[in-house]
UniProtKB/TrEMBL annotation, chain B:
<dbReference type="GO" id="GO:0055074">
    <property type="term" value="P:calcium ion homeostasis"/>
</dbReference>
<keyword id="KW-0106">Calcium</keyword>
<keyword id="KW-0472">Membrane</keyword>
<keyword id="KW-0812">Transmembrane</keyword>
<keyword id="KW-0677">Repeat</keyword>
<keyword id="KW-0479">Metal-binding</keyword>
<feature type="transmembrane region" description="Helical">
    <location>
        <begin position="15"/>
        <end position="34"/>
    </location>
</feature>
<protein>
    <recommendedName>
        <fullName>EF-hand domain-containing protein</fullName>
    </recommendedName>
</protein>
<dbReference type="Pfam" id="PF13499">
    <property type="entry name" value="EF-hand_7"/>
</dbReference>
<feature type="domain" description="EF-hand">
    <location>
        <begin position="151"/>
        <end position="186"/>
    </location>
</feature>
<dbReference type="GO" id="GO:0005509">
    <property type="term" value="F:calcium ion binding"/>
</dbReference>
<keyword id="KW-1133">Transmembrane helix</keyword>
<dbReference type="InterPro" id="IPR018247">
    <property type="entry name" value="EF_Hand_1_Ca_BS"/>
</dbReference>
<keyword id="KW-0460">Magnesium</keyword>
<dbReference type="GO" id="GO:0000287">
    <property type="term" value="F:magnesium ion binding"/>
</dbReference>
<dbReference type="InterPro" id="IPR002048">
    <property type="entry name" value="EF_hand_dom"/>
</dbReference>
<dbReference type="InterPro" id="IPR051433">
    <property type="entry name" value="CIBP"/>
</dbReference>
Amino acid sequence: MPPKRKNDVAVKVEDVGMEVDAEIDSGSEDEARRRAKNRRAKPQRKAKQPSEDEEDEDEDETPRRKGRRKKTKARAKDDDEDDDDEDNRSVKSKTSKASRKKAPKDNEEDSEGEGDKKKRGKTVSKKEKEQQNKEKKGNVKGKAGQSKGGEKDKKKKNGSSSSSSGSDDESLSEGEMEALKEQVEEKKKLVATLRNKPWRMKRRLDVLKEAQDFVEKFEGALGKGKGRRLYAFKVMMAKKFIKFKRDFENFKTACIPWERKIKDVESHFGSSVASYFIFLRWMYGLNMVLFGLMFGLVILPEVLMGLPYGTIARKTVPRAEQDTAMDYSVLFDFEGYCKYSILFYGFYNNEKQIGLLKFRLPLSYLLVGVGIFGYSLMVVIRTMARNANEGGDGADEGDFTFSWKMFTSWDYLIGNPETADNKYASITTSFKESIVDEQENQKDENIHLRRFLRVLANFLILCCLGGSGYLIYFVVKRSQDFADMDNADLSWFEKNEVEFVMSLLGLVCPPLFETIAELEDYHPRIALKWQLARIFALFLGNLYTFLFALFDEVNEKLEREKIIKNETELALAHYYANYSSFYNTTDVPPPNVHPADAIRGPCWETGVGIEFVKLIVSDVQVSYLTILIGDFLRAVIVRFLNYCWCWDLEAGFPSYGEFDISGNVLGLIFNQGMIWMGAFYAPGLVGVNLLRLLSSMYYQCWAVMSCNVPHERVFKASRSNNFYMGLLLLVLFLSLLPVVYTIMTLSPSFDCGPFSGQEKMYDVVMQAIDQDLPAFIGNIFTYATNPGLIIPGVLLMVLALYYLNAVSEGYQQANTDLKKKMQAARDEEKNRRNNKDSTNQVMKDLEDLLPNKSLIPRPIEEEPPLDEIKVEKVSKPTKTKPGSSGNGVNLQKEVSLAAPNPRGPVTHGPGPRGGPPLNTRGPQPGPARGRGRGGHPRR
Amino acid sequence: MGNKQTIFTAEQLDAYQVGSLCFVINTSSLFILIQKLFYRYRDLAPQLVPLDYTNHPDVKLPYELIGSMPELKDNPFRQRIAEVFSEDGEGNMTLDDFLDMFSVLSEMAPRDLKAYYAFKIYDFNSDDFICKSDLEKTLNKLTRNELTDDEVRMVCEKVIDEADLDNDGRLSLEDFQHMIVRAPEFLSRRKPNNITYILIWF
């Protein structure tokens, strides 16, 4: 036996050829399956070379073993059929049998190497089995699978070393040797799995010591081969990688602006309040981009390359206004120097190309104005689509909402008291949120009364909306009358009546709606949506009255402008005629008029821009003052006057304010609508808005944290902010209309702004296409705008829309069906357990086996494991506890989890459970396997 | 490497490696790690812990010291953690227990193991089942008694209702594992810091 061992790999390779055509018996199918499995396992292995060797060996070895088995029919058949049933006993007996068999064979055949090889083949195949077995347990996954390679490599070495040691004491019989080898294997396995055992360190160490001593005694020192080092390296790299990923995640989180602030708010006020701040942050991001576009492509070029202030009429304050142009009250109304500044449309020159770069400012101005809408539209829709993917309306899917909250919400990394406080608050809040949801689910009540109340509430609210609409209409009409009168005769109230009424409505109506909405008794999340929709309707009325008033003003200005334009032209014509007749020359120099004295039109675009800026500024003032008075002052009074007051202010009437989510969200949305509309006429507006958002982020965060109390019923926000986004999209669309209307139909002022002198604003584009682009592009545009092309295009899009809609509906349907099925499966499983668990254990086990049986029929082997195989025995009971048979994946997970916890509650004896067949069964569905990280790295 | 030899024998190190700190395979980093942990342990009570561990001295640190570690001091379950990992069940720890704790709570520990220990931690009365009183205790520790009795009762009932598969009114280890492997944090490793029982102390 001994001498040839060292180079038996070589021998083996030769054997391949010789032995491949050994007998192929009835079990070949099983064999194929097993091999396939091996192959699957292969990529996981670390030490490629050695394991491949073994693989080859195994493959040509197995038929031979089969052949041998054929001779010992009955037994072998069993083994073959439950191909992976790693009942150690059977393996053992098999091996000893094999060795017994081999002894004579050895004598017969003169090639000792081959004999040895057979034996080794045996052990190897056993290892294969072991591996399959382990995989079944699910423990082995990635790491263990990897370790296996190294292990094998080692084993091989050990194999050779042990065999050489075997040669030393030939006194041992072959059978004994095999038995010993088995034991050594066992011990090694024990060592490998030790890490996953939830034992005390001491016990672990003891067991380890024992096992190692044993192994060492009979096998010599454990080798440290190449594969092992490679494995170590890979593990180290894996760990480094995980750490890096974590650091990177942390870094990413740290890079998100205000994340901590928002988390703070969220932990104390719930996700619904936090959703407002998240929305605000998102809005800030959007406005940053808009500002970048506006600033980079319009404002900066004009500042750097355009004419400076005071050079031409549109860039100069008129003589009449110059005295008061720097007064604070004038500036505050955005008149005076403000009006003739870079902030507004009128300041921009209509020179076609400016500066060294020949920058086409008018074209750029128009494209940026339109591009802002395009970009916003794109971003909003993309965000909505992405949110829709994440889906959910806030209610947790999943069956374990409370359990997860209970057991997985604490963050064990928390290491400072402040964070811990926040965490406590946030856990409490999230529990409260879930409790509200749950209570809502359990509520059942008089449905007729509820319906009646809801209808009534809607009726009342419609009345309110109608009333406020009429009020606005009335006031706007009145203000138009006032506009005809002399400005000096009007009182301050009459001048600002419209704004005043609108602000008043904005203050009074939302709380009124909220009060009425209490009749409806919706879930707070749904109530919030209703509230949002109603206030939205109210604000929409305000917005459109404002717009109509604006259009009246614009039309009137256009009229005036026409007159002034005619007058100017007439005056110029007079001047030219006089000049040429006086000096008798046709070469007339332009009239030398100081820009401040030039005749100028009303420049309606700047007027509109000023209106918007004023609106935004007053909005900021109002909202900040509301916070200051309504929240801060109230909180101060409640807090400090409480010491000397006749009733409890904190608990009683005024109490502290709650954060008004709906009002703030809508304020933000409408503010953005104003920005979109106004940005075209006042490029500086985006910058103003940026400041506003920035300041309100800090201001409101502070106000919330210091002056407000959480809502009485803290509720979970819907996970996607899509309702907010939907409203925003609506507002975007609404604000797109007037701007596009003015661009397409109204003619720009003749003496101010980048489009002065054009018939229509979009003419700059036409000019650019005609003059500066090659002719064929112009042709393409002509074709593209042909109705014959556009109509089919629209038709096609409509069809695509229809198709996609149908598809998505189909998916949705499938989704809900699947959800229902899952729920049903879960209920069924639960019921089954309830009914069966205590009654008939045997029946239950049989049932557990059924689905597997239908896959691969094979006999069930139920022999209690031998005493010496401790590991196997200990881990069995938990492994085989009630597997959920109806559901392959579940079964997998459970089994994989339970395996390494031998100390789990052992409620059933190991024997009669029929353990081995259940979880050591053949190819079970794989998906759940990839997960278990715990391996059995072996030495 | 000289001074580590004075703390542990090579065999001890080897044993630790196989026995517990399995997740570090590389020998040299193991030295560093064990050394680091040993000094952490020793720093808690320099006067109690000898520098030489070669002859297995019998030293235990009281819970007061263990619980004051920065990793534990803000944890609502610190007492339970110490109790679970200590051999005497009172929170007094030997070095072995200490290493045990860190290895189980390390990032690289297999999650099955973590789930098992999480179960132990939440099982306040150590009867191998998480029953209602355990749940109430857990909840009160998590929320600092902010919830009303009604709410607490409701949440506990919900938890039992959700996770109890065999309807015995309490959660066995199996129920617990069945529930916990489905936790989103458990499945996707995207947010490691939210996993209850994956503590990353290394």
